[in-house]
């Protein structure tokens, strides 16, 4: 496992005007799956600016990039996949991911969040949640990152002025 690299990735904590964060349910895990909810995230292309990539990923995963970046975690955060997923998840080429996380304010209307634009959507449902819910919805290997996001992005989990 230690011979495999980390996949570079960006993540989005998208806050609405009420200070709630968007979480989405993974389509590939089934409706009853435990910890099937997560924040939008995705791969960073070679040479791509992380700030541009997070907006691209929002559009690809939830059908809108109507958002403004409010802040970011200074560090790159990483997680290791559990042993049973090594060689299977992430195309079998990575030991986990190293991620740059952004807090964004959603500037559109809820009707503009469109999971149905991609013929093979990653998510099949979404909802607004309290930021404090993140650790409880996270799969175990991402829980530490979601705990950190809960602390670092708490200042954005308030109604917009």
Automatic annotation (TrEMBL):
Pfam families: NUDIX (PF00293). Residues 5-151 form the Nudix hydrolase domain. GO terms for molecular function: bis(5'-adenosyl)-pentaphosphatase activity; guanosine-3',5'-bis(diphosphate) 3'-diphosphatase activity. Its EC number is 3.6.1.-. GO terms for biological process: nucleoside phosphate metabolic process; ribose phosphate metabolic process. Keywords: Hydrolase. The keyword Hydrolase applies. A motif (Nudix box) lies at residues 42-63. It is an enzyme of class 3 (hydrolase). The keyword Hydrolase applies. It comes from the Bacteria. Its cofactor is Mn(2+); a divalent metal cation; Mg(2+). InterPro entries: Nudix_hydrolase (IPR020476), NUDIX_hydrolase-like_dom_sf (IPR015797), NUDIX_hydrolase_CS (IPR020084), NUDIX_hydrolase_dom (IPR000086), RppH (IPR022927). HAMAP family: Nudix_RppH (MF_00298). Belongs to the Nudix hydrolase family. RppH subfamily. Accelerates the degradation of transcripts by removing pyrophosphate from the 5'-end of triphosphorylated RNA, leading to a more labile monophosphorylated state that can stimulate subsequent ribonuclease cleavage. NCBIfam families: PRK00714.1-5. PANTHER family: NUDIX HYDROLASE 26, CHLOROPLASTIC, UDP/ADP-SUGAR PYROPHOSPHATASE. This is RNA pyrophosphohydrolase. The gene is rppH.
